[in-house]
């Protein structure tokens, strides 16, 4: 997912809420666990549910845009055929053709705006899904921290070396699967902007 960095940031903030460890505490046998955030999002039931729902929303958006796109492609081919062999002066002198070109240009511009709006809606929907995923993950992560008596949770991606025993990813996934196998993902809509 393209917004995975937001996910990492949210995890870091959740873990930061657990507290800071002083160097003296670390010297006294601090328990450290690691988690693989990307794997949690990719392999958990909730993460897979989000991915499937986002894909469905993306397909829905493409289905909505497809008729206009096809119509514009057909109209563009027709206009290109009309323009074949004509000079700029000939085109400018043909009022009907100029009107047709202007109308096509307006439709293409409107379609580009619609496509951009749909893309923004999908991005907004994805961000909200990740926020909801993080809300579901936080209590599970805190539960694992408590069970493992961990004082530090590190991202596996930033650890140079770590034994498998400190990796709590599978435990987090199994607890998240039990607690929250699905996440509600609803397409976010951006209101129409009034014409200027």
Strand tally is 2
Instruction: List unreliable stretches of 5+ residues.
Output: 1-5, 12-27
Q: Please summarize the sheet with the most strands.
A: 2 strands, parallel
Distance between the termini: 35 Å
Q: Outline, from the CA principal axes?
A: elongated
- Within the largest sheet, what's the order of strands? 1-2
- Percent in strands: under 5%
- The helicity comes to 55-70%
Structural class, from helix and strand content?
A: mainly alpha
Rounded to an integer, what's the Rg over CA atoms? 26 Å
Oligomer classification: single chain
Q: Total domains, how many?
A: 1
Which descriptors apply to this entry?
196 residues; two-stranded parallel ribbon; single chain; 7 helices; disordered N terminus; elongated; mainly alpha; 68% helix
Topology of helices and strands:
Layout: H1 4-16, H2 23-27, E1 32-35, H3 37-43, H4 45-83, H5 88-93, H6 95-147, E2 152-155, H7 169-179
Parallel strand pairs: 1-2
Helix pairs in contact: 1-6, 3-4, 3-7, 4-6, 6-7
How would you describe the overall organization of this protein?
It contains seven helices and two strands; from the N terminus they run ααβααααβα. The protein has 196 residues and is mostly helical. The chain has one domain (4-179). Strands 1-2 form a two-stranded parallel ribbon. Mean pLDDT is 87; it is low at 1-5 and 12-27. This is OmpH family outer membrane protein.
Brief digest:
GO terms for molecular function: unfolded protein binding. Belongs to the Skp family. This protein has 196 residues and is mainly α.
């Amino acid at each position: 997912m393209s917004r995975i960095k937001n996910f990492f940031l949210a995890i870091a903030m959740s873990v930061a809420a657990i507290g800071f460890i002083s160097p003296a505490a670390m010297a006294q046998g601090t328990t450290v666990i690691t988690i693989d955030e990307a794997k949690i999002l990719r392999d958990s039931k909730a993460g897979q549910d989000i991915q499937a729902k986002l894909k469905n929303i993306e397909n829905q958006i493409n289905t909505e845009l497809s008729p206009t796109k096809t119509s514009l492609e057909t109209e563009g081919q027709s206009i290109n055929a009309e323009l074949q062999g004509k000079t700029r002066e000939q085109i400018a002198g043909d009022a009907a053709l100029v009107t047709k070109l202007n109308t096509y240009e307006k439709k293409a511009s409107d379609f580009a705006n619609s496509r951009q709006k749909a893309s923004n809606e999908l991005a907004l929907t994805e961000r909200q899904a990740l926020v909801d995923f993080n809300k579901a993950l936080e209590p599970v992560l805190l539960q694992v921290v408590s069970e493992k008596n961990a004082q530090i949770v590190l991202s596996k991606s930033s650890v140079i070396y770590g034994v498998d025993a400190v990796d709590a990813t599978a435990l987090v996934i199994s607890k998240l699967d039990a607690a929250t196998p699905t996440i509600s993902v609803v397409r976010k809509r951006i209101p129409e902007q009034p014409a200027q």
